[in-house]
Amino acid sequence: MPSAIWVGGALVAAASIALPSYWRTASAREAARVWTRTIESPSVLQPGDATEAAIAGRDCADKVVDGAVAESLYREGRFYGLSLLQNAVCPEMVKLMRADSLKLHQLGRLTPSGDPDEPQLSEQYKKYFGSLPVLTILKPEDAAAEGLLGLAFGGSFLSGLCLRIGELTGQTLEPGTLQLACYDGEGVSYQVHEDYVPKEDYDPERLPEHHRFSYKRRITIILYLQDQWSEGLGGAFRAHAVRPEGEPDLQNFVDVLPDGGSLVMFRSDMPHEVLPTFGQRFALSMWCHAG
């Protein structure tokens, strides 16, 4: 399998900049563009019910994140604490989460806006305008009630990560929105954006419920659910040091392949995008909110 990270052929240290006070801790330090750890994923027994799935998810979160991982998110540097944990979840649980994701996708539960009542894109729309990523907003308890034990595990895992990071850094973080997204090939991509949006920049009442608290987003966590992936399938997560104007400079971005079981975390004001995708790419995400 190819390396999960490439940065113009090199991984180098970035120049530090001052961060707003609410994004940093006293131990913030200069670091490379992306803080990376490859771990031996904790083994998880197949959960027999929703309670076991939730317990296993939180237990896995506690094992995956230690002080070094948590503090990496608040280090100084141009890439907003970008951190990558490879093999964060064992292959068996990744397969279970992906199976649940495929089930929801086949049932038509994933739509461009996340509204389950929104119609699916027609072939005519795709022909003239291209395809779009589709998503659904989940609650761990709903996944459990539907017997989706993989996604019940995933929701508990990501929620546990938010709480664990807060405990280890002294930040007040709360689990926020849980989102399942699918980029179903056909060159689907997502434009450069930030997850955090200042409250004064939008009217929450005019947005879907899952976007109303964008001003509270502090840490973004993304877990990839592929069986296998290759560079030829595209779909890389691209992190930007600054919003690009035209073609980005090689020194100002990092690409990460969406390998199954990999976990990407960063501060939510980082510009990022998803590059054109030519395979079925699932990702389970959560925004950790300020308490």
From TrEMBL:
GO terms for biological process: cellular response to hypoxia. The keyword Iron applies. InterPro entries: HIF_prolyl_hydroxylases, Oxoglu/Fe-dep_dioxygenase_dom, Pro_4_hyd_alph, Pro_4_hyd_alph_FE2OG_OXY. It comes from the Eukaryota. GO terms for molecular function: ferrous iron binding; L-ascorbic acid binding; peptidyl-proline dioxygenase activity. Residues 174-290 form the Fe2OG dioxygenase domain. This is Fe2OG dioxygenase domain-containing protein. It comes from Effrenium voratum. The lineage of its organism: Eukaryota, Sar, Alveolata, Dinophyceae, Suessiales.
